[in-house]
Amino acid sequence: MLTAIECETARLALVMETDGRTLKFGLDKFENVQFLSYRQDAPARVGCGPVVPPQRVLATYRASSVAGEAGTAVAIELIPDDFPNDIK
Q: Is 85 within the bounds of a domain?
């Protein structure tokens, strides 16, 4: 679940909750990540702060050497609530 977007001076972080863990996927600017939606009720825009309501997503990312990040975001796909849970 995408729960928030943290905006710092030099780096952004997409905050996600999965399997009881919080993961952060970094990016330098919004233009460097592709957002795709397969939902009828997708947010109209992406911005800093909490994502309300949290959105189910699939994240494509590259390994990151930045401390505290699970990776660098490449693409975020907003998926329907009924999308199968067994896809990893």
A: no
